């Protein structure tokens, strides 16, 4: 079997019990199955939830806290307990875990995004098992990833994983919540996420998790858009993850085999960058960008808005509204003097050959 890079996301409900304790049996089952994948030569990154769920009881809360400070305090205790357990149990398989705690800011700042990528690559190259969670204790609510399902999708795109496996307390996506409807039917394979699937996943999740099935579908949609296939389900025993990679896992497979991976520049521009200005383009430029995969030249721009620097991300507005985003190769001041001009007229001492405003490799359609 071809060696794969796999991101495994484990939800709170698959690591802890409702009393707010780590479930050692559930944990050791996951650990044994990850150890098998690594032994077979696959690269694994683990995205582990469970910090709040494993910590709240130790702080005297009767159930998962709802206040921000309560969740942050519980996560501070629970995260250390989780890692302590991971280190202890993985050592039986000679696997060394590395803890990585991320916030939204770490993705939106370009240098941090690149650093996260390089660190993950270095860890994988050295056979270490990265264990990622959101940095709950410092995350401000509006700046979180939403939940760890989304974090795992973004990580799987960042590292160009071959497969994202979302392990949860249910064996896949059903047409309605099986906890409410005993006749609900499971989907074994779906090509992508539609309104119908979203509707069926509306019901809330477990007492210890956050987003329920809906947040997994939103995350799956993001992973697919980044070229990563997804599996949502469960299973037990040390063979469960390898069975999933072999195509007979207990759950739902999402995405066709021939997905296109998106380069990191495009991922960053599309999902994490902040727009600093707007470029208004004529019909010819719009067609060139949208239909011919061309770069944007000054001649097609008739108006600019905002103050931006070379290297910033701007949105592009066509006849029908916003059509995409890209990284500009000119500051707004420089651009002002060349918009609407033919490329020959734009070349000057400072830019003897460069006339491209947004290069096609740093452009994403919306
Ligand atoms: N259509 C559906 N198919 C499967 N599960 C669903 C559906 N709608 C809602 N759910 C619920 O989603 C839950 C899983 O979400 P959640 O508890 O957040 O998991 P985790 O803690 O693993 O992230 C399931 O236990 C189930 O009750
Ligand atoms: N960072 C939080 C994750 C919460 C979360 O997304 O939980 P889940 O829905 O179980 O994946 C924690 O570790 O408790």
Short account of what is shown:
By secondary structure, the chain is α/β, with parallel strands linked by helices.
Structural write-up:
This protein is of the alpha/beta class. It has 2 domains: 5-262, Carbamate kinase (3-Layer(aba) Sandwich); 273-365, PUA domain (Archaeosine Trna-guanine Transglycosylase, Chain: A, domain 4). It is built from 13 helices and 13 strands. The chain has helices at 24-39, 51-55, 68-91, 104-108, 110-125, 148-158, 195-200, 212-225, 240-246, 264-272, 283-291, 332-336, 343-346; strands spanning 5-10, 43-48, 97-102, 129-134, 163-167, 189-190, 229-234, 250-254, 275-281, 301-305, 313-318, 321-328, 358-365. An 8-stranded mixed β-sheet has the order 3-4-2-1-5-7-8-6, sandwiched between helices. Helix 1 (24-39) links the parallel strand 1 and strand 2 (43-48). The chain is elongated. The mean pLDDT is 92. The protein binds adenosine-5'-diphosphate and ligand VHF. Adenosine-5'-diphosphate binds at residues 11-14, 168-170, 173-174, 176-177, 179, 200-201, 203, 205-206, 209-213.
């Amino acid at each position: 079997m071809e060696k794969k890079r796999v991101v495994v996301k484990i939800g709170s409900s698959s690591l802890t019990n409702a009393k707010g304790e780590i479930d050692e049996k559930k944990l050791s089952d996951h650990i044994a199955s990850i150890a098998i994948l690594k032994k077979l030569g696959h690269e694994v990154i683990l995205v582990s939830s469970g910090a709040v769920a494993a910590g709240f009881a130790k702080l005297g809360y009767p159930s998962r806290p709802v206040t921000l400070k309560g969740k942050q305090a519980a996560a501070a205790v629970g995260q250390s307990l989780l890692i302590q357990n991971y280190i202890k149990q993985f050592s039986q398989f000679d696997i060394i875990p590395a803890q990585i705690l991320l916030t939204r800011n770490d993705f939106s700042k370009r240098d941090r995004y690149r650093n996260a990528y390089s660190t993950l690559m270095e860890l994988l190259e050295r056979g270490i098992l990265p264990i990622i969670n959101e940095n709950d204790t410092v995350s401000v609510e509006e700046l979180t990833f939403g939940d760890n399902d989304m974090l795992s999708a973004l990580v799987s795109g960042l590292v160009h994983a071959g497969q994202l496996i979302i392990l949860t307390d249910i064996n896949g996506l059903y047409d309605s919540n099986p906890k409410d409807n005993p006749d609900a039917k499971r989907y074994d394979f779906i090509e992508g996420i539609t309104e119908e699937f979203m509707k069926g996943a509306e019901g809330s999740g477990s007492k210890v998790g956050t987003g329920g099935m809906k947040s997994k579908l939103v995350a799956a949609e993001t992973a697919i858009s980044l070229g990563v296939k997804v599996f949502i389900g469960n299973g037990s025993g040390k063979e469960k993850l390898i069975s999933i990679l072999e195509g007979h896992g207990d759950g739902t497979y999402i995405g066709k085999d021939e997905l296109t991976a998106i380069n990191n520049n495009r991922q960053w521009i599309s999902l994490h960058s902040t727009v600093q200005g707007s470029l208004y383009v004529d019909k010819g430029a719009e067609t060139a960008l949208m239909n011919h995969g061309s770069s944007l030249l000054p001649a097609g721009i008739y108006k600019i808005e905002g103050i931006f620097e070379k290297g910033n991300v701007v949105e592009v507005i066509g006849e029908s509204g916003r059509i995409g985003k890209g990284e500009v190769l000119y500051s707004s001041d420089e651009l002002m003097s060349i918009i609407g001009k033919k490329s020959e007229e734009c070349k000057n001492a400072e830019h003897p050959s460069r006339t491209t405003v947004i290069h096609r490799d740093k452009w994403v359609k919306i």
